[in-house]
Amino acid sequence: MDKRYIDEILSKYNEPSGKLLGILEDIQEKEKYLSKEALKYVSEKIGVSFSQIYSIATFYSFFNLQPVGEHIISVCMGTACHVRGAVEILKNVEYLLGVGVDESTEDGKFFLTTEDKHFSVNTARCFGCCSMAPVIRIDDKIYGYVKIKDLPKILKEYGWDKK
Amino acid sequence: MSDKVNVYINSKRYQAIKGEPLLNVARRNRVDIPALCYEESLKPYGACRLCLVDVKEGAKKGLTTSCTLACSEGLSVATNTDEIKRHRKVLFELYLSQAPNSEKIKDMAARYGVFSTRFELKHQENDKLNSKCVLCGLCVRTCNEIMGAGVINFIGRGHNTKINTPYFESSDVCLGCRACLEVCPTKAITIEDRSNIRIMASWSYTEVELKKCTVCGKYYAPEKLDAKVGSLFYYRDKDAKLKNMCPECRKKYAAKKHTLIMEGEAEKYAK
Ligand code: SF4
Ligand code: FES
Ligand code: FES
Q: Which has the closest alpha carbon to B17: B72, B98, B63?
């Protein structure tokens, strides 16, 4: 693994041990996920234990710990969205993409990627636009008032072509 | 530093050091306050909420955790009001559900009159902590703050929070010191010694090599732990022989040596 880009990121922070979240965010922006090697490398470089860094990375649903598909679909499971049918939305997204239901990894993170690595699905807790519930986010775009029957149309924008 | 102040627990007066946690004073004087996440040698953490007291006189009146309550002159608390009992009951019910296999929790709850829980029992399959962990964080803090090893930490959050090594993989920084097991209030952690190997079963089966006593041949301490802290005491005597002896042999050796010194025959042991 080429770690030069991590060195570059670290050099932007003058006191790296206190800027861990920013560093992890930058790495994720570049690689789309946080690899074990990257976390280990950061730990060695800034002198924060590997277990601490892993703890932080698993705490925030924002961080991906597995390689991700080209497009990331986050289904909001916050209170407002939950009440307005987020569970059904999630089930339907999973169904349309043909990914398994209720698989979550041992670290408690929920993450599914289609076989062709085109889409990844995860869940989030409130995007802060509850008035538009239920909400999903695809990459950087927010979709509000989502209805199940709209899902195929939305997914098609991102190259979904099944059925 | 050691300013003395008077504090009152259930209207009885006690001497305290200004700023120390009230829970310390209670423990010193055998006033009963339940607690799971406090350990004198670590910074107060306030996680388990069991050590609730009701502040009657002090900067901020009302319920608060006594492990994070600093003593000041005239501080007065009650430890057993109906309100506290009510909260405690719910807390114990939650702990009974979180750690359904822990006898320690069952005993503790029973002492406070709680024998069952309204909440679903959280039996976890393949849980390395045997469904006994209450997430008090004592093992994590001891491993990080006292041992400086940083082997384990919280993983995930909320209902799914676990304690283990990163990626649930065996650790290359574990010293095998067993401090985590010593501090755990629920006896959740499993560690086994098999001849020259210590197996940290709870921590993803991390294996640590043990060191052999050169005198009696017993395996007595992890190599890595010895390398890290051993020199702190072996060399007080500036006697390299002590370096590879188990505590018992060390004791015998030291006693013998000192007797000979007194008898003026130290050179027999000098070599
Ligand atoms: S394993 Fe024991 S010490 Fe560690 S958090 Fe769980 S209950 Fe506390
Ligand atoms: S709960 Fe979904 S956006 Fe707030
Ligand atoms: S001992 Fe005070 S909150 Fe746990």
A: B72
Extract the tokens encoding B93.
Answer: 């019910």
Give the E-state strand segments of chain A in sequence order. Answer: 71-76, 111-113, 119-124, 136-138, 141-143
Q: Which residues are CB-contacts of B12 (< 8 A; sequence separation ≥ 6)?
A: none
Distance CA B154, CA B163 (A): 5
Q: Tell me, using a 6 A CB cutoff, whether residue B140 lines ligand 3.
A: no
Cβ distance of A108 and B157 shorter than 8 Å: yes
Average pLDDT across chain B, whole number: 92
Contacts of B255 (CB under 8 A, 6+ apart): none
Residue of B nearest to A65 (CA): B167
| Secondary structure (3-state) at B219 | strand
Residue in the block written with tokens 């976390």: A39
Atom of ligand 2 nearest to the CA of A126: 4
Q: Is any Cβ of chain B less than 8 angstroms from the Cβ of A108?
A: yes
- Ligand 3 neighbour B87 (Cβ under 6 A): no
CA B136–ligand 3 middle distance (angstroms):
9
Q: Residue B9 and residue B32: Cα distance in Å, rounded?
A: 11
Q: What does the pLDDT look like over A70-99, one tens digit per residue?
A: 898 999 999 999 999 999 999 999 889 888
Determine phi and psi for A136, rounding to 5 degrees. -125, 155
> Model ipTM?
0.85
| pTM assigned to the model | 0.83
